[in-house]
Amino acid sequence: MLKLLTALQTRQADDYTIVNEPILSSELMERAAKAFIKVFLDRFPDRKKHILIFCGKGNNGGDGLVISRMLFDEGYHHVHTYIADFSEKQSEDYLLNLERLQQKDVSIFYINQAADLEFIESDLIIDALLGSGLNKALQGEWEKLVKKINKFSGFKISVDVPTGLPCEGELLSEAIIKSDLTIAFQRPKLNFLLPISSPYIKEWKVVNIGLDENFIQSTSSPYFWFWKADIQKYIKPRQAFEHKGLLGHALMVAGADETIGAALLCTEACHRSGAGLTTALIPEMGLRALNARVPEAMYFSRNNLDKIDWLKYEVIGIGPGLGVSEESSKLLNEVLANFKKPIVIDADAINLLAQNHQLMKLIPQKSVLTPHMKEFDRLFGTHDSWWERIETALKKSVELKVYIVLKNRYTMIFTPEGICYFNSSGSPAMASGGMGDVLTGMITSMIAQGYAVEKAVQLAVFSHGYAGEQLAHKMYVVPASNLIKQIPYILRELMVK
Question: Looking at the structure, do residues 400 and 304 belong to the same domain, yes or no?
Answer without folding.
Answer: yes
